[in-house]
Design a protein that fits this description.
Length: 430
C-alpha cells in the first residue's frame, strides 16, 4: 500500500511539475571561452569520446544585408571562399570528414569535420580562405556561372517559386521577402568589387565566432587558432542593421504560371516570431502540430509545413500540391484556416512538446552557442528555461495570432494551354 501511495504521489508530481523533471535532463557542457586580440571569439569543447573533430565558424551577418538590386551577394561570397570541389574532396577522402558552407538571412557558417588528430590541418586549410580570400574578376565570373546554373533550376521549381513569392507578398522589400540565393537577374549584376565590399564589411574577426569540439587539447586549439587567425582583420566601421518596416501584406490570391510545371502548387505564408522572441518555442511546437494536422488532410502526402525564425521576424509556410483546379478551395486558398480550425488539444501539445524537448536536448552544443551570438540570446540555460516554460495556452495564442493576422496566398501552375500531369511523381527527377 505504501508503495502504491508513493507511486501515485510521484505520478501526481510529474503531472503538476513536469518541467522540474525535464530540467534535470537538459544540460549542456560549457566550453572554454577565449577572445583573441582581434576580437575573434573562440569556444572549445574537449570531448574525449568523440570520433571526429569539428570546427565551425559563424559569421554573424547574412543575406539580409544584400542590396535590393544585387540579391545573392552573400551567397556568392560564401561560394567564392572555397570555389573548387577539390577542397571538399580532400576533406572527404583524406580527412574522412566533410566541408560544408551554409548561409541564411543572418549568417554565413563554415563547418569542417575530420578524423581525430587533424585539427591543425583543418585550421591551416580554413585560414587562408577566411583571413585573405582570393576575390578577383576571373574567380567571381566562375562562381557566378555556377550560381546562375543553380538559380535556373530553382526558378523552374514551383515549390521554390511559390514559397519565395508568398514571402515577397508577406514582407515586400523587407529583407525576408527577398531570396537569399538571389535571382538570375540580380546575380548577373554582381561583380568582384561587390564581393570585396561585402567581405570588408562582414567577413571580419569581430563579427565571428569559432567553435572547436572533439578529442582535442583546449590549450593546443587556442594556440593554433591564435597563430592562424590572429592576423584576421577587424571591421573598419560598424554596419547599421536597421531596415525599413515592411508594407502591409498583399492578402489577395496571386496566380502565376510557370513553364514546365507538372502540377498546381498553392503556398500560404503568415507572420511568425523572431528567434529571440518570447513566443519562439511556442511557435516551434505549433509548427510540429501543424505538420501532423496537415498530414490528416486529403492531400496529405503533398502538403509541407515549415516555420522559420530570423533575427528580426519570422514566417510560417504551408504548401499543397494538387493535380487539378478541382481541389477544395479551403485547402488551397487558406490552408492555415483548414489546419487550425479546431483548438489545440492537450494531447497534441504534449506530443509536440516532447518531440521538441528531445531535439533540443540532443542538439550539438556548438550550434546553440553560435545561435546565442547570432540572434543575441542570453544563454543556454535561459533558452532551456524558455522552452520549459511554454504552456498549451502559449501555443494556442500563437495559432490564434496566425488566424487573426494577414496571410498571403500564391498559386502556381502550368500555362493554361499546358495539360497537368496527374500521374507524374513530383519526387521523380525525370
Amino acid at each position: 500500500m505504501r508503495t502504491i501511495i508513493r507511486l501515485s504521489a510521484f505520478i501526481l508530481f510529474l503531472n503538476i511539475f513536469p518541467q522540474a523533471v525535464f530540467s534535470q535532463n537538459i544540460s549542456f557542457p560549457k566550453p572554454r571561452e577565449e577572445k583573441l586580440l582581434n576580437d575573434l571569439k573562440l569556444l572549445i569543447w574537449n570531448q574525449q569520446n568523440a570520433d571526429k573533430i569539428t570546427v565551425k565558424l559563424r559569421i554573424h551577418s547574412g543575406s539580409a544585408f544584400d542590396q535590393t538590386d544585387k540579391m545573392g551577394t552573400i551567397a556568392l561570397l560564401s561560394d567564392i571562399l572555397f570555389p573548387d570541389d577539390g577542397i571538399k574532396d580532400f576533406f572527404k577522402d583524406e580527412l574522412e570528414g566533410s566541408l560544408k558552407i551554409d548561409y541564411g538571412y543572418d549568417y554565413i557558417q563554415i563547418t569542417a569535420v575530420s578524423k581525430p588528430g587533424q585539427l591543425l590541418t583543418i585550421l591551416e586549410t580554413l585560414s587562408p580562405a577566411i583571413v585573405n580570400p582570393t576575390i578577383d574578376k576571373e574567380l567571381t565570373e566562375k562562381v557566378k556561372a555556377k550560381r546562375l546554373e543553380l538559380l535556373k533550376k530553382l526558378e523552374r521549381d514551383p515549390n521554390y517559386v511559390g514559397e519565395r513569392e508568398a514571402a515577397k507578398q508577406l514582407f515586400g522589400d523587407f529583407p525576408y521577402g527577398r531570396p537569399i540565393e538571389g535571382t538570375t537577374e540580380s546575380v548577373g549584376k554582381i561583380d568582384f568589387a561587390d564581393l570585396i565590399f561585402a567581405k570588408q564589411r562582414f567577413l571580419t574577426s569581430d563579427n565571428a565566432t569559432m567553435t572547436v569540439s572533439g578529442n582535442v587539447s583546449s590549450t593546443f586549439a587556442y594556440r593554433a587558432v591564435r597563430r592562424l587567425f590572429g592576423g584576421w582583420g577587424k571591421r573598419t566601421e560598424k554596419v547599421p542593421s536597421m531596415f525599413r518596416l515592411p508594407d502591409k501584406p498583399n492578402t489577395s490570391v496571386v496566380n502565376l504560371t510557370l513553364k514546365g510545371a507538372e502540377h498546381i502548387v498553392s503556398t500560404n505564408a503568415a507572420n511568425s516570431v523572431a528567434r529571440k522572441d518570447d513566443a519562439y518555442f511556442a511557435s516551434n511546437i505549433l509548427e510540429r502540430i501543424i505538420a501532423i494536422r496537415s498530414a490528416a488532410l486529403k492531400s496529405a502526402a503533398d502538403i509541407t509545413a515549415s516555420q522559420q525564425s530570423y533575427l528580426l521576424r519570422g514566417a510560417f509556410f504551408l504548401s499543397v500540391r494538387s493535380d487539378s483546379d478541382a481541389a477544395p478551395a479551403e485547402n488551397k486558398k487558406d490552408l492555415f484556416s483548414a489546419v487550425l480550425a479546431e483548438k489545440i488539444t492537450n494531447s497534441e501539445f504534449e506530443s509536440a512538446r516532447s518531440s521538441l524537448l528531445n531535439d533540443f536536448r540532443m542538439q550539438d552544443p556548438a550550434e546553440l552557442w553560435l545561435d546565442i551570438d547570432t540572434f543575441q540570446l542570453q544563454s543556454a540555460g535561459d533558452e532551456t528555461k524558455r522552452l520549459l516554460a511554454v504552456s498549451l495556452a502559449d501555443v494556442q495564442k500563437a495559432a490564434d495570432e496566425i488566424l487573426a493576422g494577414p496571410r498571403t496566398s500564391v498559386e502556381i501552375g502550368p500555362p493554361k494551354d499546358a495539360p497537368v500531369d496527374q500521374t507524374k511523381d513530383p519526387k521523380d527527377p525525370r
